[in-house]
Amino acid sequence: MPLQEEFEQQGNFLFKHRSYIPILILLASFIIYTINIRDGKDPFGNGIVYFSLGVSIIGLVIRIYTVGHSPANTSGRNTAAGQVADTLNQQGIYSIVRHPLYLGNFLMYLGFALLPMSIFFVIIFCLLFWIYYERIMFAEEQFLRGKFNTMYLNWALKTPAFIPNFSLFNSTEIHFSWKKILKKEKNGLAALFFIFWIFYILRNYLMGKVILDYSFWTLAMVICILLYFILKIIKQNTNWLDEAER
Question: Buried-most residue among 55, 108, 216, 220 (CB within 10 A)?
């Protein structure tokens, strides 16, 4: 099979199973984190955890900005069944980078990868993330190129794939939808603080400290989990979060 078709086939497969990469990253993070905590490396004790949290929050903010300004069925958000794009996003954040959602994902996962305090692990994470998502991005762009042809080529020629070029920014006319964010991104917020809390609980256990307390990490986790379930109930029982064409 020619490499172009092989990469596209691999990308479509990985796209459908893209939710597994966070699990693998977390398992590896927990293992290395456990070893390093026992060796005296404590990210919660030296403030590195706040840098890690900041990196993850930047990733979440990028996702929120992207999704909040994206209409329904565009290149901005796809489905588990496959690629979906009625229009090609070229404005807003899509004017400075072609894959802002994956950039957001990278930074969110990087925050978790920083917690074990291992440069070697961070390098391995970056390499694996690139190999994994490169195939997915290739498959998506093959789909967009086939559907939008010259429009896609003109956009791709000037817009970087992953590292933003802020000088290219072109504001979007699509208003920001908080309803769409509350509907689509509640999982990311809850997962982010829940995972940091798990790291915190594991650290306390390994260091012989009080496992459950009233720390920032516990309170933040509880608030985000409660918010998640409240929004989930609202989504399932009302149409309050629905918005036409969003």
Answer: 108
